[in-house]
Amino acid sequence: MTSNSRLPVQVTEELPRELIELAEQIASLPPEYRSRMEPACSRVVDSFRRRRRILELVQEALSQLRLDVKYLMFDLDVTRQERDELREQQDR
Length: 92
What we know:
This protein is an all-alpha fold. The chain is built from 3 helices and no strands.
């Protein structure tokens, strides 16, 4: 009996080594145990993927927020400079 992972190749590339090893161990179990363990393993893999997607979305949102803050700081600096120049012109 061969113990092949039931996970697609592209999925195994994004999963931690421990999850891949767990799936391989479950695949090597006798059928009566494997059928009880595979759904739990699938839920863990789905949960991992969902958390990774959420983390990627949060990281992307943080990157966008950092960029937005930089633009706002630049805009604030320019606005202050313009205000100071206008005050100087008014004082003359």
